[in-house]
Every structure is written in C-alpha cells, then in structure tokens.
Design a protein that fits this description.
single chain, 204 residues, two-stranded antiparallel ribbon, globular, disordered N terminus
C-alpha cells in the first residue's frame, strides 16, 4: 500500500547549504547605515557579532560581565560554547568596544544583565529567531539576498577574511572554537577556494 502525504519538505522553495560570509565592503556598508541611523543597539550587536565569531546561541546569551570589567569593554574576552562546552577566546576591536560601551551606558546595563536583553520578557535575552530577523534586515538593507545569508554569515565573515589574508588555518580554528582542523576546512570551504584561485592563475 502506498501512502501519500500532504506535507511539503521543510526546505521546499528555500536555498539550503552553507551561508555566504560578508565581504569587507559589505561589512562597512551595513556598519555605516547603522551609524547614520543612530541604531545604538544594532550597531553594537553587529560589531560584536563580527568580532566574536560566536554561534547565534552563544551570541544572544552574552552577559555584560563576559565582555566588560568596571564599565569598560575588554580587548579580549572568553566564553564557554554551548555546542562544545569548550571555552573560546575572541578579540574586541576598538570600534566594537566603543559601540558596545555606548549601548551599555544607553541601556543602563550592569554585569549580570544580558548584553542583548529581551524587550518583551524581563530578565531574559533576545531569542536566536529574533537575532536571525535582525541579521536578515541588515543584509537586505544593502541589497543582498537574505536566502544566502544568515546568522552564520556573521560568524564566518571575519574568519574568512583572516584566512584569506594569512592562510593560517590553525589560527582560524582557534578563533572559531573548532575541536578539529577538518571542521574548519569544511566550514570555510578553503580547499575549494584555494583550488579555484590556483586554477584562475593558469591559462590554457
């Protein structure tokens, strides 16, 4: 007996696969728009997402004390990743520190507060779905297709730029908090990219 189902596949009509990282000029395009619009929270969130390279589940759960001491945002911070239960360290650049400090002051946040508190649920943080919607709005604001960009885009962006400039996979592995090198290779797709770059240099 053959049974038919009225349920459509979860990915019907959607583009699946690894999401694209942002290019440097795209990062600056979004950043400038947020600065001009004086979006204090979103500017701080965008800058932090680019620098910290965290998964969305870790990004939304950041506490003020994770990245700040005595009212000043740290140059380097460390959090324990939810997926691996392993610590990962990340740098916080000057521009990010300034925007996050401005957000903390504007919102009146203290050490035990979530860095990105929910606007509807007291003592809670924004959800990963809310974060994803914010990211979608960012990429759409500069004319990008939201079907090929997502929260992992922000995790991949700086890591991809670092690899392209240094070719140092070990450094990128540490920054992403991957437990093995093969995960980093697959995540960045570096073997394919390197092969294409070599092929482009050969004319037949």
């Amino acid at each position: 007996m053959i049974f038919s189902s009225s349920h459509s596949p979860w990915n019907k009509g959607k583009r699946v696969g690894q999401k694209l990282p942002l290019k440097l000029e795209q990062i600056w395009a979004i950043r400038i728009r947020l600065e001009i619009a004086e979006k204090i929270r979103e500017l701080a969130m965008f800058n932090m997402a680019i620098d910290c390279k965290l998964r969305s589940c870790d990004m939304v759960k950041l506490l003020v004390r994770d990245i700040s001491r005595n009212g000043e945002v740290l140059e380097r911070a460390q959090v324990v990743q939810q997926k691996t239960n392993q610590p990962v360290r990340f740098e916080i650049t000057k521009k990010t520190r300034e925007s996050v400090e401005a957000w903390i002051k504007y919102r009146g946040l203290t050490g035990m507060d979530y860095l990105w508190p929910s606007r509807t649920r007291r003592c809670d943080h924004i959800t990963t779905h809310q974060y994803a919607r914010i990211v979608k709005k960012w990429v759409e604001s500069i004319g990008l297709d939201p079907s090929v960009y997502a929260t992992h885009t922000l995790r991949r962006s700086k890591a991809t730029l670092i690899y392209k400039q240094t070719k140092n996979l070990r450094a990128v592995q540490l920054l992403l908090g991957h437990t093995n090198m093969s995960s980093t290779v697959r995540y960045l797709g570096v073997e394919v990219e390197d092969a294409l770059e070599i092929a482009e240099q050969i004319e037949i």
